[in-house]
Amino acid sequence: AILRGMASVLGEQVPIAGGTAGDAGKFYRTWQFAGDKVLSDAAVAIGFSGDFYLGTGVRSGWSSIGLPKKATRASGNILYELDGQPALKVFERFLGKHAEKLPAVGVEYPLGLVGKWGDAGEDDYHLLRATMTVNRQEGSISFAGEIPEGAMMRLTCGDNTSILEAAGKAARLAMADMGDRTLAMVFVYSCMARKIVLGRRTREEMERIRQVVGNRVPMVGFYSYGEYCRVKCRGPSLLHNETATVSVIGI
Length: 251
Description:
This is FIST C-terminal domain-containing protein. Residues 87-231 form the FIST C-domain domain. Pfam families: FIST, FIST_C. InterPro entries: FIST_C (IPR019494), FIST_domain_N (IPR013702). The mean pLDDT is 92. Strand 15 and strand 16 (237-240) form a beta hairpin. Helix content is 22%, strand content 34%. The chain is α+β, with helices and mostly antiparallel strands.
């Protein structure tokens, strides 16, 4: 909704980079700061204009497992059925003994939208959706992003190595997108789920990005509950989950 609202004013050609506010995994309430005001349930944005280019890179490190399944019944961010079966039952069958740990264990196995719904024609990219809650009575799962009814989806998994490698690749893609301009600033928005999975190795994610962009330019950002970034040059900005997004300003 936020992206659609901003695009309706700015146009889809204007890149949007950022993330949704978080509260360190409590899922209770978030706060936003704007000038001298403290807000909640708000969206805060900063606009940049001038002679510069915003290069972007997006990668997650999660890989697809098994055959694509169709979201046969979904509404908003709630998935009710995959291939005509209760979504939770499909998840439980895949997770086996780990299913009892849902929804917490869901951060390790996000769903990836494929085809026209989310892979942007690139083999190592999926538009991911992270598990938020499960409703065992109705067999549904809610996610941290919209699930289009009729979309094709695949279960995914990753490990520390692939997740860290993805952060470095996101930075390289952003630098390549920037071209031969001079790097002036770096914005990094990474998912809190990545921080949970990486644990003590969280710092390495930023180190991988620094290895690409260097240490001489400022780098800002935060761990979010959802990341906003475009995947392709001049493409629309999308809401990602469990993904490292890197945006660089070139002048």
